[in-house]
């Protein structure tokens, strides 16, 4: 799902340039998307070879691998590709820092009573619904 999100956002970045951000942001996001796709494909390829190959029956449940185990190299490649894909996600999300610096939010909180047990005026006459039950 993350790769699909990156793909959609990269297309949107292409369509938003140069009005909202530079071409450089688009190219950085595209490179991170390519990095993510290559990592995902190598992870899926090696894990499917490891799962379907003749490397033993416990490769799915195995937690600790030794270098002399069958399929150790494939497991290592799969793990490295998974971490690589995680770093590509992180890098992609960091490209939004400048976009979010252009946005400011303001929140106003109003308390319509002295405590949280007081209720706000109801649109229905004579209706009072407590927020928290006082009967314990």
Commentary on this structure:
With 136 residues, the protein is an all-alpha fold. Helices cover 54% and strands 0% of the residues. The chain is built from 4 helices and no strands. Helix 2 (23-52) runs antiparallel to helix 3 (72-94). It is flat, with a radius of gyration of 26 Å.
Keywords:
4 helices, mainly alpha
Beta content: under 5%
The parts where pLDDT drops under 50 for at least 5 residues are none
- What is the end-to-end distance? 45 Å
What percent of residues adopt helix (DSSP H or I)? 40-55%
What's the average pLDDT? 80
Q: What structural category characterises the helix and strand content?
A: mainly alpha
**Outline, from the CA principal axes?**
flat
Give a brief rundown of this model.
The chain has 136 residues and is mainly α.
What's the topology here?
Blueprint (H helix, E strand, L loop, with lengths): L1 H15 L6 H30 L19 H23 L2 H5 L35
């Amino acid at each position: 799902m993350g790769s699909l999100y990156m793909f959609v956002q990269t297309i949107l970045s292409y369509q938003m340039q140069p009005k909202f951000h530079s071409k450089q942001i688009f190219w950085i996001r595209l490179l991170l998307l390519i990095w993510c796709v290559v990592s995902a494909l190598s992870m899926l390829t090696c894990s499917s070879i490891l799962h379907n190959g003749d490397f033993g029956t416990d490769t799915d449940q195995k937690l600790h691998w030794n270098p002399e185990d069958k399929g150790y190299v494939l497991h290592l490649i799969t793990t490295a590709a998974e971490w690589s894909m995680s770093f590509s996600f992180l890098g992609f999300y960091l490209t939004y820092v400048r976009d979010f610096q252009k946005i400011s939010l303001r929140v106003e909180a109003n308390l319509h009573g002295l405590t949280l047990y007081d209720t706000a005026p109801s649109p229905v006459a004579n209706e009072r619904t407590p927020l928290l039950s006082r009967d314990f």
